[in-house]
Design brief:
The protein is mostly helical. The chain is built from two helices and no strands. Helix 1 runs antiparallel to helix 2. The longest helix has 17 residues. The radius of gyration is 12 Å and the shape is globular. The termini are far apart.
Length: about 55
């Protein structure tokens, strides 16, 4: 049984890895870049998926 990520950065990195396995290189790079940018914006902190709300977006 696979454990699901509980944070946005972890989720995005996992999705990026899966996309690479499907030979979707550009899409994987875009997702990885977005995760890196968000992590820099959050000063190295992660964002729990439970904190993502419509008002945050």
């Amino acid at each position: 049984m696979t454990t699901l990520p509980t944070s946005f950065i972890a989720f995005t990195r996992r999705l990026s890895s899966q996309l690479q396995e499907l030979n979707r290189q550009r899409t994987a790079e875009t997702y990885a870049s977005a995760a890196n940018s968000l992590e820099r914006f959050l000063h190295g902190h992660d964002l729990p998926l439970s904190h993502i709300t419509s008002s945050l977006l």
